[in-house]
Prior knowledge:
heterodimer, A: alpha+beta, FAD/NAD(P)-binding domain, D-Amino Acid Oxidase, Chain A, domain 2, 3 domains, eight-stranded mixed sheet, 9 helices, 29% helix, disordered N terminus, B: mainly beta, five-stranded mixed sheet, two-stranded antiparallel ribbon, globular
Amino acid sequence: MTEQASERQEFDVAVIGGGLVGSAVGWGLARAKQQVVVLDEGDVAFRASRANFSLVWVQSKGLGMPEYAAWTKRSSDAWQNLADELKETTKIDVAFGRPGGFTLALSEAELAARAQMLSRLHNQPNMVRYPYEILDRNALLKMLPQVGPDVAGGSYCPLDGHCNALRLLRAFHKGMRELGVVYRPNHVVDAIDFRDSIFHIRSNNGVLAVGKIVLAAGIGNARLGPMVGLKAPVRPQRGHIVATERAAPFLPYPIVTVRQTDEGSVLMGDSAEEAGFDDGVGLGVASAIASRAIRMFPQISGLNVVRTWAGLRVMTQDGFPIYDESRSRPGAFIATCHSGVTLAANHAGNLAAMIAAGRLAPELEVFSARRFDVRTAA
Amino acid sequence: MFERLPEAGGGTITIAVDGIAVTARAGDTVAAALLAAGFLSSRTSPVSGAPRGPYCMMGVCFDCLATIDGIGSRQSCLVLVREGMRIETQRGGRVVAP
Lengths: 378, 98
C-alpha cells in the first residue's frame, strides 16, 4: 500500500486487538453503523481472552472505586440481552446463566475476612445498591448441599453468573463478519501517526488510514497507548486454570474459584501471580488450586484432570479498568480491563455507542489513566 | 464385525464388560477386546449423546474412553486386559456423588 493511498480514510474506526474487549467493541461499533476494521496481532499475542474463567461476576468488585461496582452491575444487568442478541443474529448460544454465585470460605477466619471486605465495599459513599448475603455453614448448606465438611460458609450474590467465553469470542467474531467488519489477523502495529484528523496506522502489513482508533490490545496497550498520547500502565498477572473431564451436571451455581461449564467440565482457578510475561504452568500452583477445590467439593476428587494452563490477566495498579480518550489526538480511545467477559455487555453497548459518537460520557472520566498521575503539590 | 487372525496367539482371559463375562486374549488392549467381543461403542458423548468407540487405537483420538476397574474415562486402547478386569461403558458425563 502506498503513502498516497493511505491519505484517504478507509474505515471510520480501527480496533486494535481482536480479543474479548476488541471484538465486543468492534461488534458494537458495527451495530452503530460504523465501518470497522479490527487489527489483531496473531498467535504470538498473550491472549487473555483464551485463559479466562467465563464468570459474569459482580460481588466483591469495586472496593476503592464504587463507580466500578456500578459499571459492573450495569453490564451484568445487560448481559441477558447481549446473549439473546448474539443467539438471534449468530445462532451461537453463549450459555449465559445468572443463578447467582458464591465465594466459599475454608475457615472461620476466611469467612470473617470475606464478611468484613463486603461490608467495607457496600459502606462506600455512592456505592450502587444490590443484594448479597453472608451465609454461615448451615445457611449455605440449604442452598449448596454439595459442599464438603471443610467449608465454613460463604457469600452469595444473586447477580453473579457465568457463560461459555470461548463461544462468546466466536459469536462476536461471527457477528462482526456478518455486519461487514473487516478482520485482519497478523497485523502488528508499529506506529500510529495523526495528520489532518486522520490516523495512519503502520503495521507489518502496510499503512491504514482511519478516522478513529480504539486500543483494545490488553497488555499490548502499554506499548500502543503512547503512540496516540494515552497512557496504559498495565502489567501481566498470571492465573492458572485446571480443567477436568466432562461430568454430569452436579453444580448449579458458579463459585468464584470453581465452576461447571455448560458442557460438564469442572474448571478450577484460584491463583494470581506476578510472573512477568511467563505464561508457563506451575505444578505447585495447579495442585494447590485442585486441593482447595476438592476441599470445597470432595466429590470431584475422582474426576480426571484433562488440561491445565496459565494465562496473563491485564492488570492496572489499582485493579480497575482504564477507559480513556486522547486529548492531543481526538478520536483515539483506549479500553483495558481484566474482566472482558463480565464487561462485554457494556463494551458492546454503552462504550461502543460513545466511541461511535466520538466522545466518552462524563461518567467514564473516573476510569481515565490520569488517576495514576502524581498530583501536583499545592 | 471384527475377527481375530487365525495365527493370533496368547492365552484366554476373562473380563467383565457391564457385568457380562467376555473372553479376551492375553496381550489385547481393552479396546481390542471390546471390539472383538462386539462392543463397538464404549461411551456416549457428554455433549451430544452420540455413541463413541475405539477409533485410532493408538492413544490419539480419546474416543475409546471407558471406566476400567472403577476409574472413569481411561483410554481403553492404552490399557492391556488382565484376568478379572471390570470394564464399564460410559453414558454421558461422569457422575459425581451428590
